[in-house]
Amino acid sequence: MEFALPSKMPVAHSLPARMKLRMRSHIQAIPSVHPFEAQIKKQKTLFILGATGTGKTKLSIDLATHIPAEIINSDKIQVYKGLDIVTNKIAEDERKGIPHHLLGFMDPEADFTVQDFCTHVHVAMTRIINNGSVPIIVGGSNNYIRRLVEDPCTKFKSNFDSCFLWVDVDLPVLYKRVAQRVDEMVEAGLVEEVRAMVAPGADYTRGVWRAIGVPEMDDYLHAEKVMADEKTKRMLLEAAIYRIKQNTCKLVDSQLRKINQMIDELGWKLHRIDATCVLETRGGGAVEAWEEVVLEPSLAIVRDFLEGQD
């Protein structure tokens, strides 16, 4: 079954005018801090936003190899143990020794609310800052990020200066990349991973079972269980893969809408990094393109921010 790209694409919003931030606190910093004490000088925090498949995780690792930083996952599905292929968790050997927080630590069937997320992030940020490092919060669960920053109870804005990097890719290019990545996940063992961990008819409204790539496989898994013929199973598998691609594209659309809401409704200043040419470039040229159009501009923005020039 050939995957067709969505016919309607969200219209990108222009970013608002840049606003200069000035810290007015005259309170001296102390060596060991708790980030949510109002009396303490504001701490620096980095956020990396973007739709799935744009390179957020790679950028977080690259930045953390240039500055003292640790990474906090803000993908509400990647917090769960298991289904590493389906949830596209970064492998241990790809982390380059950078400490990661909130990644693969929750029981697969547990509930993980936005309040749970905020609580765990607060704890992780305290540890990271006391280690003398900068928290890099990266992931695609934008509702969780919005709650973290805007919740008046935590006074996040009063305690932190935040720099937001937005890795963006033109939608036609990103949709194709999403479809390609699903095929790569299938080749890497997505079907076998779901078969080993998920029973047909599972509760797909809870825990890690909500992940795109799990409920779409239900009909196929059921056909295997009842010993359906090979032709039927092949058709059901093709249909499942198609739905995974389709639902991932819908996720992309939703993520972009929420990012634009952060800009238009909340007035967040996001530094947009256009990574389109990276995904369009083949072979070794993609590495050079990434460094030139994504990493180097991002590093310049981050260094200015950390030095107080943003």
TrEMBL record:
Its EC number is 2.5.1.112. The keyword Glycoprotein does not apply. Keywords: ATP-binding, Cytokinin biosynthesis, Nucleotide-binding, Transferase, Transit peptide. The keyword Nucleotide-binding applies. One of its GO terms (cellular component) is mitochondrion. One of its GO terms (molecular function) is ATP/ADP dimethylallyltransferase activity. Gene3D superfamilies: Crystal structure of tRNA isopentenylpyrophosphate transferase (bh2366) domain, P-loop containing nucleotide triphosphate hydrolases. It comes from the Eukaryota. Coiled coil: none annotated. It catalyses: dimethylallyl diphosphate + ADP = N(6)-(dimethylallyl)adenosine 5'-diphosphate + diphosphate; dimethylallyl diphosphate + ATP = N(6)-(dimethylallyl)adenosine 5'-triphosphate + diphosphate. One of its GO terms (biological process) is cytokinin biosynthetic process. It holds the Pfam family IPPT. Transmembrane segments: none annotated. Involved in cytokinin biosynthesis. Catalyzes the transfer of an isopentenyl group from dimethylallyl diphosphate (DMAPP) to ATP and ADP. Belongs to the IPP transferase family. This is adenylate dimethylallyltransferase (ADP/ATP-dependent). It comes from Manihot esculenta (Cassava). The lineage of its organism: Eukaryota, Viridiplantae, Streptophyta, Embryophyta, Tracheophyta.
